[in-house]
Target: Argininosuccinate synthase
Amino acid sequence: MTDKRVNKVVLAYSGGLDTSIILKWLQTTYGCEVVTFTADLGQGEELEPARKKAELLGIKPQNIFIEDLREEFVRDYVFPMFRANAVYEGVYLLGTSIARPLIAKRQIEIAEMTGADAVCHGATGKGNDQVRFELGYYALKPDVTVIAPWREWDLRSREQLIAFAEQHQIPIAKDKRGEAPFSVDANLLHTSSEGKVLEDPAQEVPDYVFSRTLSPEEAPDTPTVITIGFERGDAVSIDGEALSPAGLLTKLNDLGRDNGIGRLDLVENRFVGMKSRGMYETPGGTILGVAHRAIESITLDRGAAHLKDELAPRYAELIYNGFWFSPEREMLQALVDKSQETVTGTVRLKLYKGGVHVIGRESPYSLYDQDLVTFEEGAVAYDHRDAAGFIKLNALRLRTLAQRKKKLGM
Amino acid sequence: MTDKRVNKVVLAYSGGLDTSIILKWLQTTYGCEVVTFTADLGQGEELEPARKKAELLGIKPQNIFIEDLREEFVRDYVFPMFRANAVYEGVYLLGTSIARPLIAKRQIEIAEMTGADAVCHGATGKGNDQVRFELGYYALKPDVTVIAPWREWDLRSREQLIAFAEQHQIPIAKDKRGEAPFSVDANLLHTSSEGKVLEDPAQEVPDYVFSRTLSPEEAPDTPTVITIGFERGDAVSIDGEALSPAGLLTKLNDLGRDNGIGRLDLVENRFVGMKSRGMYETPGGTILGVAHRAIESITLDRGAAHLKDELAPRYAELIYNGFWFSPEREMLQALVDKSQETVTGTVRLKLYKGGVHVIGRESPYSLYDQDLVTFEEGAVAYDHRDAAGFIKLNALRLRTLAQRKKKLGM
Amino acid sequence: MTDKRVNKVVLAYSGGLDTSIILKWLQTTYGCEVVTFTADLGQGEELEPARKKAELLGIKPQNIFIEDLREEFVRDYVFPMFRANAVYEGVYLLGTSIARPLIAKRQIEIAEMTGADAVCHGATGKGNDQVRFELGYYALKPDVTVIAPWREWDLRSREQLIAFAEQHQIPIAKDKRGEAPFSVDANLLHTSSEGKVLEDPAQEVPDYVFSRTLSPEEAPDTPTVITIGFERGDAVSIDGEALSPAGLLTKLNDLGRDNGIGRLDLVENRFVGMKSRGMYETPGGTILGVAHRAIESITLDRGAAHLKDELAPRYAELIYNGFWFSPEREMLQALVDKSQETVTGTVRLKLYKGGVHVIGRESPYSLYDQDLVTFEEGAVAYDHRDAAGFIKLNALRLRTLAQRKKKLGM
Amino acid sequence: MTDKRVNKVVLAYSGGLDTSIILKWLQTTYGCEVVTFTADLGQGEELEPARKKAELLGIKPQNIFIEDLREEFVRDYVFPMFRANAVYEGVYLLGTSIARPLIAKRQIEIAEMTGADAVCHGATGKGNDQVRFELGYYALKPDVTVIAPWREWDLRSREQLIAFAEQHQIPIAKDKRGEAPFSVDANLLHTSSEGKVLEDPAQEVPDYVFSRTLSPEEAPDTPTVITIGFERGDAVSIDGEALSPAGLLTKLNDLGRDNGIGRLDLVENRFVGMKSRGMYETPGGTILGVAHRAIESITLDRGAAHLKDELAPRYAELIYNGFWFSPEREMLQALVDKSQETVTGTVRLKLYKGGVHVIGRESPYSLYDQDLVTFEEGAVAYDHRDAAGFIKLNALRLRTLAQRKKKLGM
Model:
């Protein structure tokens, strides 16, 4: 454990067994006042039971914080990330990574409000989430004390945890006594499952793992066609209906779930140095990502689009590694946001059994000008003869290289 | 037209009406000897009719070159590109782009063999292909004369082309008299369709455009599961059966076609400066791309994988723009190939109605070590307490920034 | 020549012989009204003679524009570029490149004011400047007609130019009759010399070429020490004296000249495809560049600094190639400027015989905290033991790779 | 201290007081056999005294390894790095960083030879060197035990160290009793000085700090002109005399020292998260870096050169951070080395009072072709009219953007 004295700690509290054990462990180990913070990021669980449980464990009412952060989550974290087309290792839409900075930020804000000197999270010592939480904490409150129970305590097995819970009168649901067959994280953007039965990357993920999407096979036999409206890079409507950020993502999640969209079986590289196999379900986000690229395809200039493409892996890595609150992420965001000023219009998509297919896009800012691409003559801006000079000068250095080869018999 | 004297020209000749017109136009305009080069890159057309047609148009037998380049195409162009996970503008697998350098290279080799001083292609003056052909020509034979009829002649309409053909006794198939509703390019990797009826990016592509894939809706209701074997970054077998590069891609194309895989409706940015809408079908390549990333996911180290990811857009842009035979493409290839030494193993995939889903991967070179990721204690290489120091030092600069903010009231 | 009808053209007019010939050529060839635009960008020539000469050549007074753009040049072009630490090919400070966009912008603005439909510049057909001018023109007025006499006319030699001048009563200074031994471009940031006698890169540049700096050997034997003040990335004072952008650069130029600073003998790669050898003198800019990096070294976070470093070559290439008015340059500028908010403070420099040596830097925003770096214990934010964990987790993937090697006998 | 049992440890042993204390501390703390490894990397100290001292401290003769690694150091570490033009944070030539991997590699090799299970270095717990050593160790021998005394022991002050030494009969030179005013590291490439009296970045470095170079002011009043010969990217001769890698760098060091070249006063960002101020002297390396860029300037194609420039900061960061033995460094090296095949020729330099000025370069592989750059007509590969088309197509997307602005009144 950390050797610092702690007076008051803000705990990221889900209301579940594990964070309840942490709550009690904080009280008994640090003898400190505990403030619980429970956030609705769209994980699909009711929050009020968390209040009851916290009270039961002796938390004062004024120390219980329960907040619905869904709109802030989508508006200020998910959407900026999608503007960048951020994808980690070619495929992962960063659903877990992007939720951590917001939780960290609110914990620190609550610490400031309540005069707490410490914060605590329930992430394990082998994963990325500990890094994401703690980089967030430190970036926002450099002198905060961070408590990471899973790295500190000597509860080494499920049995010991259960024993600790029993000893401290923490209620234990029946199905929580044994080991979970895998661990789950969820928010409005995605659900991830990993560990235990999922660890062998050679083995197909068993069907009961999925909680958020129908399988493509179960999805309807007829496609669903939708139109997503964008303004300045952000989705703002579905089929003409204006929606709030969280409302829109919720709707896309429903559409994605029904059409078997967004499952991903991945072996990824963790920031802490090992590989891990994850199973992700990102139904709405998968649709959103395809749609955003499509609206960009007609509204972004090539120079802007290619620069974004080259920097997107870097941006994604920063978020994956937990550097949301870093100058370099903010610099990249400034670059990305600068490009989105005209990313406005609509994209039509066909959703079908796991697939998201673009079938049309329109924009008042479209840079696609039919006159320029028709194969007939007539367009003023493009003269076929220009192409000859363009090619000649682009070829010049290659010709020079070839002449050198010839001259030197290389 | 170019103002150079031309004695002998090697024409990239498909045997179709357009290149037959070009052939005749070369003879009449330049008064030069024409060598025809017809390559099988897997476009799915018989080549022998091209020989007949060339003979009919007065080409001497020794000047008719017909070659099956499918193995070379896949082995030396497609596979190296897939090692790089090259994707243009986030989605396009570069099916047309990658075929041009090989055609250019063979044209130049035939020019050297036959003593020709010029080469000629049938690409239009508004597209990328003219650039790709000509950069290839110049890079390999810097003093070659390049003839690009579509930029040179004054045949301004379909009617004029047909009139020219009739005037020179070029046989015209009935269905070639009118305008084609769109233009098509095909090879073993893909089929592209663009122009005319496809030009409005707001309009869905009509179904008759697709020639290479079933639609997802028409594909079978049961998934197909396959296993692809890789060696040093290249696919070498399907379901345990060793296959040549072209054999393998052909097989993947069949699998892809049957399962509705690889259709892409795209608005892309051409090198020559305008946007264009293309409809691509890349059935086997789509499967291959997913599989290659999956085998890399367990055999490539994070540092290698992320460096590749950051450079892939650049590599893709080089190929799209026609710079295959450039020092920078070769440098990037050296970097990529260095990483592929251990990219060996098998990937299991489920193909279903347009989707390619990874369900397992195995490798003797796997870097995925289950002992390291299990959530229990015991693994020697990873100590939970290390994470604390790791995070602390990664956070140090962020804390310093935060302290500055605090100190200065920023 | 361009086949478009031209009514009125805005000519970038220096008042020298060459642009006077162009002026007359425009009148005689296009029969159009000519508007002259002469800008003071600090090239060190008086502008009023240009007015006289224009009048002499028949330009109406209201069509003669003479402007002092020095402040705008430094403030809106030079300084933003230095914020990015832009250096082309490792050494060139882009002195010529950065002046072109401003000239192009003013020409277009004058064209809009005067109702001109064309613009004209005097850059040759082999250099980069034609590209920079014309990309600027087109980016700001897409329908403008561009006249580039050196690419259009048939005046093929110095003799023909002189003959044309004589024929049209253009006054010819005696020393302009013969060929110049090399060509020169100058503005407040630099003077470049290239061509003719300078073309052989194996030959040392003869001393008479330099006009802007003493040679290091001639410079004083005692160093000059100065202090430059920065605010938000821009230099604002020298030795405590606040100066306007142009005033500051002028002062730095004097200091640089006197101390033999800023000469550069370079072989560079032109955008148009060939190599060229240039001789540059950038006295003040060389000092400014060193100073800017020094103030950044204590005020910029590592993440910000390294991201800038990785993007600086790209930014420099864009400016060199003429893409100042492009979305991607503006996006990069947004990224750079975001980082400069705290780049405020002072840098002390020793100037001595060609060298610029940083000897001190201070800032209220300094991130350099002596407590953190002393080799003794005590600093709270840094615990030696953290380093062990930091290293262990950074090493984890390398150890996994090594274990694989060992296991497989690789 | 590490909780592992250690039987035999290979210590990086300089023979100085600090590593002698470490030696004894290892014996007394771990009760293990100690193997000393003392390498000549050109630090300018005799090695035989280290043997005597090791024997005196009880090391068996067969456990004393003293090696001259200068040639290997320059050939296999310094030169590959200079091929990449690696510069950290715009200015630092990585003189300390590049020596660490070689020492780590030899320690591990000696560990394998002697059956040692541990290695030990004398780097402090706050610097980069601990990271560089240990990443090297782990990358080459994943199961090695690493001992870092400065992070482990409880000797907290100079007094305690001296007391420990006295207690264990370690001879103490008089000038080592007190604190050194700053710490020094040296090898054939450079000497660094940092810490203590140098820590305030606002204060000029006092003159007695420099050990490796004359000051520019003291350097001769007449320039020295030299010619460096390169083959495939590596320097091979000076003034026509072929030299071994270490011989050549030694000679350049002499030339640099005499001419006051290579001093650098820098605030840099350490990998461990803090800023530090260092004083570097890199006399020969500074000359070599300038010369290498100059020979590249005529032998490298633009595409190759710019790709290298964009990747150089990344490559430098990897070396600075200690990732020499990583896949990504090796991949970048493959890319760099691929480009160096034709980097052969000679560069003429003028060395003068701290400055390194290129005055000429020649190569049989030169891509600089005078015919192409002269301002007169005649060169076949370059037609002025091509420039018009080149510019037009490069401008096309900018014009489209401008048209959009106009149309929408943006």
